[in-house]
Amino acid sequence: MQLDASTLPALARGCAILGAGGGGDTEIGLLASLQAVEDFGPVPLVDLDELPDEALIMPCGGVGAPTVSIEKIESGDEGGRLREMVETLWNRPVVALMSAEIGGSNGVIPFVWAARLGLPVVDADGMGRAFPEIPQVTMEIAGISPNPAVMTDERGNVIVFRATDGDWMERMERAAAVEFGGMSWSSEYQLTVEQAKAGAVVNHAVSLAVRLGTVVAEAEHDPVEALAREIHAAQLVVGKIVDVERRTTAGFVRGSATIEGLDADAGRTLRLEIQNENLVALEGDRALAMVPDIITVLDSQSANAISTERLRYGQRVTVIAFPCDPIWRTAKGLELAGPRHFGYDLDYAPVEDLHALA
Amino acid sequence: MPSPDLRLGVDVGGTNTDAVVLDADDRLLAKAKVPTTPDVTSGIEGAIAGVVETVDRSRISHAMFGTTHATNAVLERRGLRRVGVLRLGGPATQAVRPLFGWPAELREAVSAGERIVHGGIEFDGRELSPLDTEAIARFAGEVADRADAIAIACVFAPVSDEHERSAEEIVRKELGDLPISLSSQIGSLGLLERENATVLNASLIDVARGVTNAIAGALERNGLRPVTFFAQNDGTLMDLEFAIRFPVLTIGSGPANSIRGAAYLTGRTDAIVVDVGGTSTDVGVLVRGFPRESSFGVEIGGIRTNFRMPDLVTIALGGGTIVSEDALGPESVGYRIRDEALVFGGSTPTLTDAGVSAGRFRDLGDPTRLDHHAELLASSIARSDTTLADAIDRVKTSREPVALVAVGGGAPLVPEDLQGTSEVLRPDHSEVANAIGAAIASVSGEVDRVFHLGSGGREAAIAEASQEAIERAVAAGAARESVEVVEIEEVPLAYLTDPAVRIRVKAGGPLDWG
Predict the structure, then answer these.
(1) Number of neighbours of residue A262 by Cβ within 10 angstroms
(2) Where exactly are the structural domains of chain B?
(3) Total domains in the fold of chain A
(4) What's the predicted TM-score (pTM) here?
(5) Among B496, B497, B503, B504, which would you mutate to test the A interface (most chain A Cβ atoms within 10 Å of its Cβ)?
(6) Does the beta-carbon distance from A65 to B494 stay under 8 Å?
(7) Phi/psi at B149 (nearest 5 deg)?
(8) Which among A185, A223, A280, B87 would be 20 to 30 A from B314, CA to CA?
(9) B495 pLDDT tier (thresholds 50, 70, 90)
């Protein structure tokens, strides 16, 4: 499969759906990738099976504030600098790029760089969704080292980080991202195809995003229904946003959105707990779905995903939830990105135990 | 001789040009509605002539205009200037070049060349990279023979316009008197949308001059010499000089004026406003006397922008909407309604027919012509009510039932007991609500940028932003003692350990008559 002007819009739409409300606005990423394939040609999407076991994969993406990224768009050369330094440090070639995070704009950015570098992108990612912190990747759970991490800005500055663990990597990179102007570009957790195949990544994440985007774009009657069926999602509520509340604490956007049911759901009220992404869906005291499962707010008409910063009163929405990659349901996965990691006093319950899925 | 105390309001629409005269107490003294003419100016002249014959024209001290002319010029690619597009942000931002994604024909009509040069600002006001002054001079020289305007957009210009100002100076030195549009004066955060708006603005300079000349001519031929203002997208006023420099800010003034006009006609400051026309209906929200603005980018002619525009839901429903067994529009008989609707002897069932059949329009056409269509018309008016109720619910700001103001020629189509509304107000003169909205618009100032939170925290940042907005409103002509902050919006910047927040504050007040 190749990604070009005919498939990138579907990818961007799918990345927004997998983003659980986070990962940044996909619109600029889409424009950048469309320009890249117009200038440099389409990007091959390769399966792990197509690559030699010892080949080095470079996960990559952006680190920073989405509000900065709508002003300070990338130069396009960042990926080339990351590759150069990663190859120097590993003393071997990078064979393919990979989205560290398929959710939001980070799912699209590697295609901007791959087109320029003439490299393929692996049909996999490190989350299967979006998360806010650097070590919240499947490679961390699989015991892959985040080192060496490489970070660059649009000017050409390059930093190499060696951290004692993932949490320190998060702290150091975050500080550097602020110094670079609120937005920067990085690669951590480089791995071989063999390690990836052994379960360190979420396989087929890119083709899933493209498929979801295509299903929504091509649905003849009810795109929400078509999407829910394709992804085996539970429809938590069909309703209208009646309240949105946001505040900043500890460097994140936290808040909640309240959705009142309409039609068949009339009389129901659902509250979404938000911390950059949609983390928990509550009806009264009862949790209907929770992180790391993916909770996404869709426009009821178009089935386009609405990111958390764009939620507002009056929108007609359908909230869906679908299972995360199984690796997030392991003890290590839940410790890293379960409800308690985000400060919710909840024991994780898989969405399919709480609802019948489509 | 009485002192000058009257205001003239004019709305130049695509179909009609409306004019009104109000006195100092905002009382309506005269109104007129004439067809818009291809040359614009004779339509304006006719509308003004229609209102000044009954008042003492020497008393008209102010004239306020609203128009959809700029929108139509973009949609029809008519009278646009060729613009040299300069972006300050290199080496960042090259992944999406200027005008990428524009419809090819519009880009061809508008662009005289694009260039990204080194420069730009960070969110905290630091320099992204030093400004490449030589590259700017070079670009100016290259486009000198084909550009008749220049647009300059700098990364984080809403935080600091320093680089845009320096670039403007260099271009001015190279190209002399060419019009230059700066993004810091036009849009808020979002580089690509702001840049698009700046380019459109530069290309619309002649269109704005054309309209302002037409206005000047029409005023002169009517023997008037008022202070003249233009209505903006958000329902507030700018002076004529400003309108020539920032025509893009007039692009959404039509709906904004009708919302303000509805406020005037009813005395409400908070309400839903439904403007029912012949082909479509705009549903907007009046919040504390101002139209609520869209928080999403607005597309115009296929281009993403971040204009300050009223937050509207537009539905294909109007007096001319064609009805059938299984559909309500979207086709409309439009201006042919007087020939085609059943009540007027035509053969096309329309919503007007359904309205007459339901007893909502009085003394319109010949109701006996509807006898054979009772069932169709009854189901159509029911469908129309549901569609309206749904559109109204979409724009509501709270769960509470709200007052609704129905204006426009098709206003009688709005039923008395609409779900989610506390009352339906149907003011007199609602057919000239647009022109009234222009006449009574207030003067505002706005601030929208990223604040670095220092020791004072967000309270200090909001206070600083509010003061700036008030000063801008006063500078624009508002009476200082009555200017107040009408809107505060904060967007925290996620992920950053160093706290920063984007604050948007708007202040506004009535015109200073002194």
Answers:
(1) 18
(2) 1-75+211-251, 81-203, 314-437, 442-509
(3) 2
(4) 0.84
(5) B496
(6) yes
(7) -165, 160
(8) A223
(9) very low
